[in-house]
Amino acid sequence: MSKRLPLASALLLSTCLFASPAFAQAGGSNTPTTGAPGATPSSPSGNPTQDEEETSAAPQVSIPGGGDDIVVVGRARANPVQNAPQVISVLSTEDIARTGEGDIAGALQRVTGLSVVGSGFVYVRGLGDRYSLALLNGSPLPSPEPLRRVVPLDIFPTDVIASSLVQKSYSANFPGEFGGGVINLTTKTTPNEPFLTVSGSVSGDSYTTGRLGYVYYGSPTDWTGFDNGTRDVPGPLANALNSGSPIGENATFNREQLGQIASSLVNARTSVLQTQYQMPINFAGNLTGGTSVDVGGLRLGLLASAGIGNTWRTRQTLQQFANGVGDEGVLQNSINRVVTDNRVVVNGLLGINAEFGDNVIRWTNLYIRDTIKQARLGVGFDLDRAGQDLLIQNTGWYERQLINTQLVGEFKPTDDLKVELRGSYANSQREAPYEREFLYVRTNLPLDPIGNKYSNNLGTGGKGGANVAFSDLEENLWSGGADVVYSLTNDLKLGVGYAYTDTKRTSSRRALSFLANSLPIAVQQLRPDYLLADQTIQAYGIYLQETTAQDGTAAFDASLRTHAGYGQIIAQLSPALNVTAGVRYETGKQRVDAIDVFNTGLVGLAGQLNTRIDKDYWLPSLTVTYELQPGMQLRASGSKTIARPQFRELISQVYIDTDTNRLFRGNNSLVDSELYNAEARYEWFFGRDQRFTLAGFYKKIDRPIETYSAIVGQVQTSFATAPEAQLYGAEVELQKYFPLEGLGGEFWAARRFLAIANYTFTQSELKVRDGDQTVINGVSRDANLFFRDGAPLTGQSDHLVNLQLGLEDTDRLSQQTFLLSYASKRVTTRGPNAQPDVYEYPGFRLDFVAREGVTIAGVETEVKFEARNITATPYKEYQQFDAQRIYYNRYDLGASVSLGLGVKF
Asked: According to the lineage, what is the superkingdom (predicted)?
């Protein structure tokens, strides 16, 4: 920069720029990119980064004409994206706020090369969520999801996240499970000045708010996301579940006892579906406060935050399934459903910081509870029930909870030495009590005594049915690490470190059916709560029969323990050339064991169900950065990384994914995948927060884990190891500001136009040759029976586009932004029986966000307006046969609007 200043101001400026440790580490930016909350940008483990070096010689000082003015000429990098030795993208607090998203997954989908699939799972450059790593303040997180070990990022409200870093090129200080990239979330840190903010919003969407939906009572506290005990497992059922015997007619239980257990279940409050003709509006509220105080030479900081969000969503879905082989698919069943979800997210954050000298100790505690109360009603047909119409009613309560506590210490004993110590404990839980389903049938035959009325005879003769299930999952994760960085010279820094994780998970699902020998027609036509009323159970001998598989797949216990050590060097070989090289040695011991719930002595079978993976790896990484001229540089990187199978994928336990209403089953013969990564990148930083980047990347994956489908009565999705896959592509990004003061007038004086655009092109293909094998639960099979040579990886979109266009004021808060995103079709699963693959079509999405700062009665206030999915793009997932289209899932998504108000005291 070059600027003419008075002498005193110039001296003050030079002192700040070239003596401040914060500037030396962060390039003048106060945006934390990784590490503990409030940390300056460095590697997540405190490793040296390129921005810790000055990028030019000492400032040039001249005294024109010998006068009192001087000219300070220097150069400093103020952009952490430019400074970092790896390829990173950073979402700062302001970037997140501009998107207006309520959760961090929504904000991350604006980052180049990222897409969000399903319930908040982030895909990096077309690689599925198994190839992404999520960290919180540099520490790993457990998942509350039964089907995944990756935490869904939509459970993290943006109110508790200060910034997010996405690193796409591997460095040895990160865990080895780094396929597509790492996403490190940084929680908010304590402020320099006391503050208190209160915010709230209301919202609605065109397909839900004020329109018809379905609800059920549950308990009076459901709106808070917490059940009042209504859904607790009743004593008689709890005793039966813990008996070690299947619940049914056997030596342990007689018919009378089974009827008593059935009568103990909460009935009407969990089974009566009600029509609500005008669904309520959504609301959200948040309270955040913080302060800092000086006690002698110690500075103590405190930050606390609490929030709640309550939203409703109604979808009318079409789900179909085709039988047959190849392109000759025959429509087997078709169900139209109306699904209403009431989602409640409660969060709390407590952070305490202690700073003394150059040392900082941070204690961060995070609590998130994400609950979905779901009601579904569907009608349709199934060819297995020829001549019958079906009516299916479901109610469910799915609660996910995450508790995380972290302690991080950053110490600087000398100017040349930095030490970081960190420890973390996290617990995640998922409970799904009283998953109820009622199936009614109607024949429409004139001679049938039932006639055209729906009836449910509880399974007698295969007509109708009533089921209930109880699921439970708990995962505990302990982690710790130590990192040391030593500066040998100003141009050479060494980093070494150690990391440890210990993850343990238990999961179970117990399913039960209500049965009766025979029921009068009048009873069969009763609504669910009367059908299962105590008097009906007693009068007609209705009893419970457990349908949970007795082969050891009802429950499982799993663990993953890793130890890792690494060394890394960052060398500034010349003013223009930087080299970052490192190697990580990581060991991983993973096991998944079937739990013998029914004491059947699974000696022989346990060997087929249980899994042991004990592997160690050397994982090298190298990144070279060459500065062509100030603000313009080239990067090249190469590395080896891994991807491990997820717990749920390794146990042959059937599970229903409630998002897709699809059955999944694991494969205990899966193995680790190994990835070889390469990337070349051009970067031009032509102004503050302005850049142009162009990159090409390539990945070779040995033994990638892919999903495939099979017909087992109905479609069932499982997992298998393909021989090989390759992925390559390119991405381009532009961020540019255009000052508008030239338009004249006071309104335009401080305004500028913002344009952020990025595009990612990706191609992937499986490599399957004759003779290649894959192993399914211990049995070797020809790989080409499951995978087609040249087929794309599941979850990979060829094209990803993000565009942000807006106006903003540089003097005060005033932003108006249009946000457009597009993702092309991507495979969700392989078609069963050589049928065509199943694709989903995300399509276009257009949003608008306006934020305006105003002062009301001397109080700073922010008003925010959002319009989401303005184009009302529907969701489509289908197979395309020669003669017809089969929808695995299709529903409309309404446009939504939100109005929020935030006050800062």
From this structure: Bacteria
Distances (CA, A) of 254 to 74, 247, 597, 600: 87, 10, 20, 20
Q: Specify burial of residue 421 (Cβ count, 10 A radius: 0-12, 13-18, 19+).
A: middle
Are 877 and 859 a contacting pair, CB within 8 Å? no
Residues paired with 868 in a beta bridge: 896
Residue 534: which H helix or E strand, with range? helix 534-540
**Rounded CA gap, 729 and 698, in Å?**
7
As given in the structure block, the two tokens for residue 326 are 């190849």
Mean pLDDT of the chain: 84
Residue 631: count of CB within 10 angstroms of its CB: 18
The answer to whether 108 touches 164, Cβ cutoff 8 Å, is yes
Closest CA to 516 of 457, 577, 590, 431: 457
Q: Name the residue with tokens 């529903």.
A: 891
Q: 């302990």: which residue's tokens?
A: 478
Position 478: which residue type? Answer: W
pLDDT digits (tens, 9 = 90+) for 557-580: 999 999 999 999 999 999 999 999
* Structure tokens given for 84: 């970092």
pLDDT in tens, 149-206: 677 777 787 777 888 888 888 999 999 998 788 888 888 877 878 989 999 999 999 9
Q: Phi/psi of residue 173, each to 5°?
A: -80, -10
For 219-349, where are the alpha helices, taking DSSP H only?
235-241, 255-264, 268-271
How would you classify residue 255: left for phi > 0, otherwise alpha for psi between -120 and 50, otherwise beta?
alpha
CA pair distance 843, 832, nearest whole angstrom:
25
Task: Determine contact, residues 570/50, Cβ cutoff 8 Å.
Answer: yes
SS3 of 598, please? coil
Q: Judge whether 171 and 120 are in contact, CB under 8 Å.
A: no
* Residue 222: φ, ψ to 5°: -60, -30
CB atoms < 10 A from the CB of 812, how many? 11
Tokens describing residue 853: 């700062």
Residue labelled with tokens 């300070």: 72
Half-sphere exposure of 300 (CA within 13 A, CB side): 4
- Residue 241 main-chain phi, psi, to 5 deg: -65, -30
- The residue that leads in pLDDT, 31 or 678, is 678
Q: What's the CA gap between 289 and 511, in Å, rounded?
A: 45
Pairing mode, if any, of strands 690-702 and 543-546? unpaired
Residue 892 has what DSSP assignment? -
Model confidence band, residue 635 (pLDDT cutoffs 50, 70, 90): very high
DSSP track, 276-315? ESSBPPEEEEEEEEEEEEEETTEEEEEEEEEEEEEEEEEE
Cα gap 736→688, rounded to integer Å: 9
d(CA 754, CA 807): 6
94 Cβ contact list (under 8 Å, min separation 6)? none
CA 339, CA 315: separation in Å to the nearest integer? 5
CB atoms within 10 A of CB 587: 14
Contact 37, 351 (CB under 8 A): yes
CA distance 597 to 546: 12
Closest CA to 349 of 41, 33, 31, 37: 37
Please state, in angstroms and rounded to a whole number, the distance separating the CA atoms of residues 277 and 178: 48
Distance (Å, rounded) from C-alpha 710 to C-alpha 718? 8
Residue 396 bridge partners (DSSP):
374
Question: Taking the C-alpha atoms of 215, 219, 220 and 226 in order, what is their torsion angle to the nearest 10 degrees?
Answer: -100
Q: Tell me what pLDDT residue 300 has.
A: 93
**What is the DSSP code (8-state) at residue 293?**
E
Cα separation, 873 vs 878, whole angstroms: 16
* Alpha-carbon dihedral angle through residues 145, 147, 151, 157, given to the nearest 10 degrees: -50
Contact call for residues 142 and 428 (beta carbons, < 8 A)? yes
CA 162 to CA 152: how far, in whole Å? 18
